[in-house]
Design a protein that fits this description.
The protein is an alpha/beta fold. It has a single domain, classed as 3-Layer(aba) Sandwich (Rossmann fold). Helices cover about 35% and strands about 20% of the residues. The protein has 8 helices and 11 strands. A 7-stranded mixed β-sheet has the order 5-2-1-6-7-11-10, sandwiched between helices. Strand 10 and strand 11 form a beta hairpin. Helix 1 packs parallel to helix 6 and helix 6 runs antiparallel to helix 7. The longest helix has 14 residues. This is DJ-1/PfpI family protein.
């Protein structure tokens, strides 16, 4: 079995964790563990949804893959020595260490993105650059020799997880997972990136961000 560790922390973004989970758990050879500072419930960034953390960082010392989600709570984690130390330790032996959205900030704070291009949510690009990464506006950024993959905001974690399945198993497995979750979107709107959004959409998005901070 391939063990995939998905860290949970207060004020994480639900889809950052659930999107990859939904893809990866379809594969019989992949086992997923939700890991954190302590066992028990962890609430998402708006407090409306609770997830159960099944193991502590100390109990998951050698995962094959890490998928680090993002969320408002990452702003505290970049100063968390327990989290940074765990990442530095497990990355020595992971097959792949990955992030979704602002999870990249935590990877960067642990020194894992030094000298590498990476992606994150567009709103955190400057923070990522300040932590040693080099932001690029791409949906998924791979550095396979360094065993690092980063995904941009929220929904991009699904794309990254499909690529993970291809790397960990094979292309047919990834395509089967894509079929099982019926991931075949034509979105009803075309404003999913800064390059496509108009000024009014960007202003409304900024308003919603301020409301959640």
């Amino acid at each position: 079995m391939t063990q995939v560790a998905i860290p949970l922390f207060p004020r994480f973004t639900a889809l950052d964790a659930v999107g990859p989970y939904e893809v990866l758990q379809r594969i019989p050879s992949i086992d997923i563990v939700f890991v954190g500072h302590r066992r028990g419930e962890v609430r998402t960034e708006n407090g409306m949804l609770g997830f159960t953390c099944d193991a502590t960082f100390d109990e998951v010392a050698a995962p094959d893959v890490v998928v680090f989600p993002g969320g408002v709570g990452t702003r505290q984690l970049i100063h968390d020595e327990t989290v940074r130390g765990w990442l530095q330790s497990v990355h020595q032996n992971t097959t792949l260490t990955t992030s979704v959205c602002t999870g990249a900030l935590v990877l960067a704070s642990a020194g894992l993105l030094d000298g590498l291009t990476a992606t994150t949510h567009w709103g955190a690009a400057d923070v990522l650059n300040g932590l040693g990464g080099s932001y690029v506006a791409e949906r998924v950024v791979e550095h396979l020799p360094q065993r690092i993959i980063t995904a941009a905001g929220v929904s991009s974690g699904i794309d990254m997880a499909l690529r993970l399945v291809e790397l960990l198993v094979d292309r047919e497995a990834a395509e089967a997972a894509q079929l099982l979750i019926e991931y075949d979107p034509p979105p009803p709107f075309d404003s999913g990136s800064l390059a496509k959004a108009d000024e009014a959409t960007m202003a409304r998005a900024a308003e919603y961000v301020r409301f959640r901070e």
